[in-house]
Amino acid sequence: MQISPIVARGRVIAAGRMLAGLDQEQLATEAGLSPSTVSKVEQGRKNVRETTWRAVKQALERLGVDLIQNNKTGHHAVGTSYA
């Protein structure tokens, strides 16, 4: 079963949040977003603006979690860094 890119990105964000040990409200605070926005993004109900993606990505990177997007294929991945 193939999922839409919006849903895939939301799942990667949710996985990154969980790797960081945050709930949606904490991620929203870290990223300067509303908890409602984080919830909708994770559920794939809201297309993610580039500025929102960047804010979430930077918030998680500060906590050692990397969100990666392949601009050619549109695939997303999440991992941890220990640098």
Automatic annotation (TrEMBL):
SMART domains from the UniProt entry: HTH_XRE
Gene3D superfamilies the UniProt entry points to: lambda repressor-like DNA-binding domains (1.10.260.40)
CDD domains: HTH_XRE
InterPro entries: Cro/C1-type_HTH, Lambda_DNA-bd_dom_sf
Domain HTH cro/C1-type: 13-67
Pfam families: HTH_31
GO molecular function, one term: DNA binding
This protein's name: Helix-turn-helix transcriptional regulator
Annotated organism of origin: Siccirubricoccus deserti
